[in-house]
Amino acid sequence: xxNFEETKNHKKRIENKLRNREQIxxxxxxxxxxxxxxxxxxxxxIRRTDLASGTFYxxxxxxxEVFIALHDNALARFRPHIKTAFEEANGDFGKFIYKAFLxxxxxxxxxxxxxSHNNKILSASxxxxxxxxxxxFDEISTYLNSFCIDGKYCHINSQYxxxxxxxxxxxxxxxxxxxxSQSAHELAKFSTQFVIGGILNIK
Length: 203
Description:
By secondary structure, this protein is mostly helical. The protein folds into two domains: about 1-60, Arc Repressor Mutant, subunit A, CATH 1.10.10; about 65-203, Tetracycline Repressor, domain 2. It has helices at about 5-35, 40-45, 55, 65-90, 95-110, 120-125, 130-145, 160-180, 185-200. Helix 4 packs antiparallel against helix 5 and helix 5 runs parallel beside helix 8.
């Protein structure tokens, strides 16, 4: 077999792997939404694909691994929204906080990745430990630290602030997941006032 054929076959194998993984994730997304994470099992996910059980286990060992992969995919899609929020804030700290929260709640509303109030593993396994979660945390920290230039917010521990903002977003996001009639704007407005008000009282 010449180099051209080897390269062609290698590329085909990679494409098949990506296609299989995407098929599993798409199936899992539907199963988690329709049945709920706690109620479903791996067989429910496999039945939504045209893959054999053995093929599934080549990619994931547990449904928790599938959940975390879905969670990371969502974070990867969300990160550009945070960058846009920072750019549109044009150096205004309060505007950035508001736009970041609004971006999250709008994204949450559109994605509704998983019915999160029904998932006990969310806080334990997928919030802070995965590469995408760490990258998002670091990116938000970088944006927040940039506001220290004028000396106004330099006394704030950015790690505490980012963790607090993420916690607020996640908890209010669960309200949005349960009740789609909730306003993303009102949730972002409340979150911003809560954060800014808290910061003003930190000495």
